[in-house]
Amino acid sequence: MSLLSAMDISTRGLSCERLRMELVAQNIANVDTTKTNGEGPYKRKVAVFKEALQTELNVNKNTDNFNGNGVEVFKIVEDNADPIMVYDPEHPDANQEGFVLKPNINLANEIIDSITASRAYGANVTVLNATKALALKALTIGRG
Amino acid sequence: MGFKIDHTFQVLEASLNGSTARQNIIAHNISNVNTPGFKQFLVNFEDQLNDSLINTKLPLKITSSKHISNGDNDLKVTRDTSPGRADGNNVNLETEMTAMVKNDIYFNAALNQINKKIAIKKYAISDGRG
Amino acid sequence: MNISALNNSPLYFANKVTESKVENGSSLSDREGLSFSQIINQKIEDANSLQKGADKITEEFLAGEPVEIHQMLIAMEKADLALRETVEIRNKIIDAYKEIERMQI
Hints:
The structure holds 3 protein chains of 3 kinds. Chain A is 41% helix and 19% strand. Chain A is built from 2 helices and 4 strands. Chain A starts with a helix and ends in a 6-residue tail after the last helix. Chain B has helices at residues 7-31, 45-53, 93-126; strands spanning 41-43, 61-62, 68-69, 77-79. Chain B starts with 6 loop residues before the first helix and ends with a helix. Chains in contact: A-B, B-C.
């Protein structure tokens, strides 16, 4: 187990949180998308995280009960909540009764998600920098 | 080799190993701050060291691979089983960041002492002749 | 007569050592018939005990005892300085002895 593996762990955290931010950006950008490639309005996408553990191949010796290897994206799921109906007869995708199916994306929730992701991203950056400082300091061993 | 490495030197090495492991654990906990159901790891090797050195409950065995070891167990790492937040995640970001800062200081302090001891030994070997 | 150049000579320095105080406060020259080797041995013992003290406080810190970091660092510096001082004193005493040897009587 080394400081370099700690940096890998932080990097995985950064990747996952960045993906989350990207999905938030995508959700917000598609808040008015009524037609997708499939059919129907855009569905909110969410990343589900999962703890990453060391596999047989990348096991780090030197501590034993600790087999953590950071975090990874389990999968990206679509939110299957019902789309909201908005009355807008002029809209090209309006149905018989003049209602349009709009994506069920709550902007407030998306903003909160982005704040959470941003905070976690910042924390991972701080840890990465601290680990780097430790590693560089360790290089001074034996230098007078 | 010929010269005996003193006990404190070995403890310093073991402490640096423990501190490195702790950095890994903190990084792992923080990277999982948004993982639903995640239970954080806990480590406290100072207690293990304390038991061996101060209380002399168990003899400190510095194995050849430089683990901190008392008996069969190496560095004790456990999972925090507390319930945590609504999604089961029990990482406290503030606590972990503080732990990281303290680990930073601990690591640097141990590093300083080890460098000092090496410098003293070098000076003694060179017999004060530069 | 104040010949300040003499103040840098090994003899002067070696003389100063016998008047200097050791850790526990008693002057070396208080003790009767203290030879240079006894002085050196005393200095070595002091340096050794300082090193042991520094090692002890370091191990206590690493084990999580409430030790101030600056205490630990200063202890190690003291041990280092004591060793260097001892070696320098030894060197100066040897130089003083050699200078005495060289004297034409």
